[in-house]
Design a protein that fits this description.
Two copies of one chain form a homodimer.
Chain A lengths: L4 E2 L5 E3 L3 H21 L11 H8 L13 H18 L3 H17 L27 H19 L3 H16 L16 H12 L2 H13 L6 H9 L29 H18 L2 H17 L31 H17 L3 H15 L17 E2 L1 H6 L19 H10 L6 E3 L3 E4 L5 E4 L8 E6 L6 E8 L2 E8 L7 E5 L2 E2 L4 E3 L2 E8 L4 E6 L4 E5 L9 E6 L2 E6 H4 L6 E3 L6 E8 L5 E9 L1 E4 L9 E2 L5 E3 L2 E5 L11 E2 L2 E3 L2
Parallel strand pairs in A: 5-9, 18-26
Antiparallel strand pairs in A: 1-4, 2-6, 3-25, 4-5, 6-7, 7-8, 8-14, 9-13, 10-11, 10-14, 12-13, 15-16, 16-17, 16-26, 17-24, 17-25, 18-21, 19-20, 20-24, 21-23
Amino acid sequence: MGSVKALGIGDVRVGKGFWGDRQRLVAESVLPYQWKALNDEIPGAEPSHAFENLRIVAGLSSGELYSFQFQNSEIGKWIEAASYSLAREPDPELEGRVDEAIELLGAAQESDGYIQSYYKATTPDKRWGDLEWGHELYSGGHLLEAAVAHYSSTGSRKLLDIMLRYVDCVDKAFGREDGKRRGYDGHPEIELALFRLYGVTGDEKHLKLAEYFVDERGQKPCYFDAERATNGAGKRERDFDLDYFQAQAPAREQRSAEGHAVRGVYLYSAMADYAAITGDARLREALSAIWESAAERRMYVTGAIGSQHRGERHTIDYDLPSDRAYAETCASIGLVFWAWRMLLLDPDSRYADVIERALYNGVLSGMSADGTRFFYVNPLAAIPAVARARFDQDATKTRRVQWFGCSCCPPNVARLVGSIGTYAYTYDSASVWVHNYISGEAVFPAEAGGMRVAVETEYPWEGRIALRIAAGGGRRALRLRIPSWSASFSAALNGRRIESPSVEKGYMVVDRAWEAGDELILDLDMTVHFLFARSEVAEAAGMAAAQRGPFVLCAEEADNGPELQGVEVYPSVPAKARRGLLACESGIEVESLRVEAAGRKALPTPPGAPLYGPSAPRYGEGPVVLIPYFQWANRAEGEMRVWLRCGM
Amino acid sequence: MGSVKALGIGDVRVGKGFWGDRQRLVAESVLPYQWKALNDEIPGAEPSHAFENLRIVAGLSSGELYSFQFQNSEIGKWIEAASYSLAREPDPELEGRVDEAIELLGAAQESDGYIQSYYKATTPDKRWGDLEWGHELYSGGHLLEAAVAHYSSTGSRKLLDIMLRYVDCVDKAFGREDGKRRGYDGHPEIELALFRLYGVTGDEKHLKLAEYFVDERGQKPCYFDAERATNGAGKRERDFDLDYFQAQAPAREQRSAEGHAVRGVYLYSAMADYAAITGDARLREALSAIWESAAERRMYVTGAIGSQHRGERHTIDYDLPSDRAYAETCASIGLVFWAWRMLLLDPDSRYADVIERALYNGVLSGMSADGTRFFYVNPLAAIPAVARARFDQDATKTRRVQWFGCSCCPPNVARLVGSIGTYAYTYDSASVWVHNYISGEAVFPAEAGGMRVAVETEYPWEGRIALRIAAGGGRRALRLRIPSWSASFSAALNGRRIESPSVEKGYMVVDRAWEAGDELILDLDMTVHFLFARSEVAEAAGMAAAQRGPFVLCAEEADNGPELQGVEVYPSVPAKARRGLLACESGIEVESLRVEAAGRKALPTPPGAPLYGPSAPRYGEGPVVLIPYFQWANRAEGEMRVWLRCGM
């Protein structure tokens, strides 16, 4: 491993507050709901068939296999999320469900370790026969992540042992040795799962297999081409060429984020794991270039990536349309995974800034306030009637839905929320970094002086973070991230203001011999600020997006009426922010922000006026009301916009 | 026929000037070029196979039939355009080609009159078996229009006689009588062609057949559904439902322009013919409502229609994206056909204004300055790299191309340009209308006093139109259209200014006893003006489009550099217009306009600045250079924009 390390799921307790509330929501609502969804028990929802497929394979049910070939991945993510929840607090009912799922997986496992509940051909002789599209290793990877998470969270080896047999089966099938397939999965995932496994087992076999999969991708001649020739597949359709699979070149030769956005971030995560373990300079060089491309040329202001539905993919630099954003929830989640691993390679706040941008915006927008409705696609502007009418927005919903036939996103949100504490801190022998401000407590190992840190904060609603050393310490640098959006900040140590605090790579550094009881207060600037995109971004020309703290804001029809294209904001006038409750259509009220930005709005053109005429629009002056983007579409269906025209 | 009548192709001579130049281009370049294209003789162009298919069917060639099922329509349009050119001036080589084409059609005709060079199944027993998609009657309709045009232009009955046999064959096959198919074509066209034929033959059989096809469309149960059941066709895909074929309801019950834009305007043209002949009030009521929807809610400022590639269709009101405009050249041409027929029903300038808007913008943009390159899709904004990258712009080209596999548009432009003189005047017993200003001469029949009118003008480059009565006259009202864009105008009769000229339904009325030598001068206001879209048009919010005379203007990268999204114009500052030559990439120089509008442009964001940052863009003040939209993409490939942000 690289010299900077992360904490485990058991090392961080998330306390009350923004994330604690969400972890409770996951435990009380999301996980039970998703269990039902995966068991096809939600009336009116698209059926999943995930567990039913497993039961059929295990001989416990006699129905017919159907649905997508990757449904096991959703079971894996659900078990992973449930495991994190069990690490947080015991829940016998949930534990029973997890055990039931694990037993089903065991029952469905073949004697040689292979597990696949549903494969397109449903014939055993087709095993590994369609790596390009079959998602066998992808599904296995998610089950493997679940196994690692379950083991780390509960100490139980039940699922881990099942999946170790699965990995042996994979290891026998894949590699450069004679008699093995020299292939890799169309959807990266097994790679990062194997690196995670290696982190638990330390077994070189697992490391080598992970490395093999990363190394082999993109080699020429391309495995997928040979496979297609064998299968008699036709020409690849536009937008689904080798770059869709990140197989256009070997990992070390890639220099930009291409293709399917989720596949990309899963691969780059594995590449970063690989680089951290081996110190491979060529991988790091590739990762740096790919990161620049993703974060500085192809990312939405909400931390979303993937600007096109077809291929769920990147297009070209700066092509970031708001209404046609694919911006898959999973892609923002995967971006968090990748950025976190970049942070382990290089503790620079630019990675943590992206984690925060994605988390509080593009990730959380994927779930309704009550945890039972989900977005797959997260546009930055929507007009419901247009989204319904246009083919180029046919994946875009303007209401979150109960479930998707392919429901990769909902349990992915659950597992990220469940493990959010592990994305807050890193350490090495000399420093402890605080990347994300989450109230609760963290316990560091001996290498970090056995420090216990308690954080109290109402972040992200408020900018004050109080960090108390609860135990341990010794001389080391505490490094607290100063988010790039915070125009200024102040800090105090044990009640005394720190003059000219030192900032390195985006972190305020307080280097001293720490003692229990020491208290560090950080005050970030929570003024509503406006962001402008680079001039290359056609979609945002002449526009600004408002942000408060880590929350990107949006205007909704519920507050501003329709025709939001007519809204202008005045970025030079300070906006007013007020905390308050958002009354959701589901009947609940949730914490929110109501921001009033100075601006105006075009008055509706009078009836009878021509479609195109010489009269410039008339405007009505008045504040524009904004709420956090992630909370959009929790009220009556209507228009929404993040980028707003700038006036004044 | 209604009381207002049009002139025939032989009644109007188009003189030197804008349209005369274009008719010469058609004669000298376009028709020879398209002849080669239809004969697969253009190196590098998509092959047409149109004539080769005919030769194969006629037994003159032994190749294999291929390409689209509607290639005969392109032969029809080419013959029609060539016929108009022959009416203008003799050309033995062209005449020889026309005769060759007609002979081929005759040779390919079956003994019962049926003509179809290529039908999907290529088996005779499938005749009329796929009306929904087969385009048999559509292709026949274009050949029929060609026959009428050839007869009217040359007096020859060669093609007319062939097509009369074809019409007999159609008449035997279709209708409500026992033993006939009660169907209609998926692509309207035969209807308007039959009405045109009736105008020449006066044969009630032709009228009844035309009426049948209009009346039957949209009746329940739907013929297409029955046909699909027979053919075992699956569910219709999204965007290709019955409204795609304007078969969602009977013609008289339709109230908005729906579905495939070209199909729509061809049907509405036939409906207007029908209403003109029969005075059917319910058809007129439907046409009024459909017109409102098309022209006031679903039309681009360039007179283009069809805002989505998939289904080449309308979506919903006010959904008019610039970069994803389908805006097919043929749709603007068909809009001219339809608007012209509305004008015959009701001489109101709003129809002529749309004709002009479409002609000078959305139609002419379909052809390069040298007449050898064509656009199918006419976007109102383009960034070449984005258009190449995005699936939702995959029909959009930023260079005109040599030919299309389905090349409906190029010969459609040619036939409209060739017949442009017939779109200038109408008359009844009391009035002569001048709708479009084209230098040349028109001869009216006895009903209009045998008047001869000579027009001298540099319109559309200049706003002065001189209209001289060359012969005939007597008491009648001359009605000259005042385009809606002309903020003011002045007129003089025989050198004396007309004080407070009377304007009715958009036409200046000069009602007097006319004598040979009378001269009427009209001066329109050619000031560059800015148009604003209604507030519902999201795409144009905060933006303006500049126009001079009938020309909508655009900014091109060639004049303004890249990142045109950063351009702002100041509509309140008068813009400067200068006539001049546009140096085209093809090597020729053509008449053009260069407009300098006051404005500014965002400076490129410096390298290294973040993708999203707190710094508002900086601007460089300076004029924005605009040229007529229809001439875009005649220089180096680059960005283009019609709607520009408004500053000041």
